[in-house]
What we know:
Elements: H1 2-19, E1 44-46, E2 53-55, E3 83-87, E4 99-103, E5 109-111, E6 116-117, H2 120-130, E7 137-140, E8 148-149
Parallel strand pairs: 6-8
Antiparallel strand pairs: 1-2, 3-4, 5-6, 5-7
Amino acid sequence: MKQMLARTALLLAALTAVVFGAEKECGPCIPEACSPPTKCLAGMVKDRCGCCFVCGQLEGQLCDYEAASLPQKYKHGHCGDNMECRLRNDLPPGDPPEALCFCLEEEPLCGNDGQTYGTSCQLNQARNKRRDDGLHAVSRGPCESGEYTYMS
């Protein structure tokens, strides 16, 4: 009788996990089975299991904040290059917590294309979007041209 109750409890737990979208456990890592990501504007990061490379989340996108007990902890993915995932502090009381990707260097940069980028992450995003490895910052602060590039 105890074994039957234990099996029933395990079955219910498994069904609950499937129905309510519980996180999948990581299996063995087989790098050869990983699909290579393409068009990663924020660069590539390892998946939550640390096995395959995937595209990183862009600045301002929702991300997986692993230090908090968020619902669906592994839903969005990790932030891209030179970014970190931070809990939002601008939500009304009672709203569920969520986290966004923030660039670690939050100052404008002047690119060698004459455009001002709000952050180094936005400059990197433009470089990756254009596939222009030559795009780089020439100075800190806005360009003299006054043209400002906003990446979304």
